[in-house]
From TrEMBL:
<comment type="similarity">
    <text>Belongs to the ABC transporter superfamily.</text>
</comment>
<dbReference type="Pfam" id="PF00005">
    <property type="entry name" value="ABC_tran"/>
</dbReference>
<dbReference type="InterPro" id="IPR003439">
    <property type="entry name" value="ABC_transporter-like_ATP-bd"/>
</dbReference>
<dbReference type="GO" id="GO:0005524">
    <property type="term" value="F:ATP binding"/>
</dbReference>
<keyword id="KW-0029">Amino-acid transport</keyword>
<dbReference type="InterPro" id="IPR017871">
    <property type="entry name" value="ABC_transporter-like_CS"/>
</dbReference>
<feature type="domain" description="ABC transporter">
    <location>
        <begin position="5"/>
        <end position="236"/>
    </location>
</feature>
<keyword id="KW-0067">ATP-binding</keyword>
<dbReference type="InterPro" id="IPR027417">
    <property type="entry name" value="P-loop_NTPase"/>
</dbReference>
<keyword id="KW-0813">Transport</keyword>
<keyword id="KW-0547">Nucleotide-binding</keyword>
<protein>
    <submittedName>
        <fullName>ABC transporter ATP-binding protein</fullName>
    </submittedName>
</protein>
<dbReference type="InterPro" id="IPR030660">
    <property type="entry name" value="ABC_branched_ATPase_LivF/BraG"/>
</dbReference>
<dbReference type="InterPro" id="IPR003593">
    <property type="entry name" value="AAA+_ATPase"/>
</dbReference>
<dbReference type="InterPro" id="IPR052156">
    <property type="entry name" value="BCAA_Transport_ATP-bd_LivF"/>
</dbReference>
Length: 236
């Protein structure tokens, strides 16, 4: 099967700091793939580079065999990749419904009406709170909104950067349940997470990053019982 997204030998730096040092991975249609690793391993840099927010030094990034490396973020989005960024970045002064509309700005009104109903079906809490100003939502609700906003562009690939960050354990569980449901409904997902335990439980496949390189790869189930992964990332 040809990959939906294929990244090969990606190098990214911030000035003299080499954050990503030859990372390769791929994602097939319908998969949930996770990049796990410690703080500073290069997970967010990889995701932001795929999303067009940072330009790579070298390497290839291909969507169904066609290069997207170095394209600006809005072009990458038009090709069908949506990023749900670290820290959510919802428009705090706007309502829930307005935030969702922003996510669908490249689509027609008719398409957005249909997609909005699907988003509300995955996130009933957002429907209940559609008129509420986003800045007054809880952290978990803001995460749902950021995910819903990304889904409004009907992406071929949804990229999630640390959706569990800063959330209470019960909300972390709820967010991961939703990510799993989105995957089951057919959305292809690239998930960056420090919460390796939760990420591996829902991922079809995973890549373990260390200091800007892929240290290990396997299915989520394999890595959950891998001795090295358990010691380094799962608390023994
Ligand atoms: P985190 O979970 O903390 O986001 P991460 O695995 O996503 O970690 P990155 O944020 O990609 O890691 O960081 C990789 C390396 O690049 C780190 O050494 C980090 O300090 C460095 N780095 C990240 N952003 C910048 C920046 N804007 N300027 C300079 N260095 C940066």
């Amino acid at each position: 099967m040809a990959s939906l997204l294929s990244v090969k030998d990606l190098h990214v730096s911030y000035g003299a700091i080499k954050a990503v040092r030859g990372i390769s991975f791929d994602i097939n249609e319908g998969e949930i793939v996770t990049l796990i690793g410690a703080n500073g391993a290069g997970k967010s840099t990889t995701l932001n580079t795929v999303a067009g927010l940072i330009k790579p030094d070298s390497g290839t990034i291909e969507l169904e065999g066609s290069s997207i490396a170095g394209l600006p973020a809005h072009k990458v989005m038009q090709r069908g990749l949506a990023l749900c960024p670290e820290g959510r970045r919802v428009f705090t002064q706007m309502s829930v419904a307005e935030n969702l509309e922003m996510g669908g700005y490249t689509r027609t009104d008719a398409e957005n009406r249909e997609t909005l109903e699907k988003v509300y079906a995955h996130f009933p809490r957002l429907k209940e709170r559609r008129s509420q100003v986003a800045g007054t939502l809880s952290g978990g609700e803001q995460q749902m909104l950021a995910m819903g906003r990304a889904l409004m562009s009907k992406p071929r690939l949804l990229m999630l950067d640390e959706p569990s960050m800063g959330l209470a354990p019960i909300l972390v569980q709820e967010i991961f349940d939703i990510v799993k449901q989105l995957g089951e409904a057919g959305t292809t997902i690239l998930l960056v997470e420090q919460n390796a335990n939760m990420a591996l439980k829902i991922a079809d496949r995973a890549y373990v990053l260390e200091i800007g390189q892929v240290k290990k790869t396997g299915t989520g189930a394999e890595l959950l019982v891998d001795d090295d992964v358990r010691k380094a990332y799962l608390g023994g």
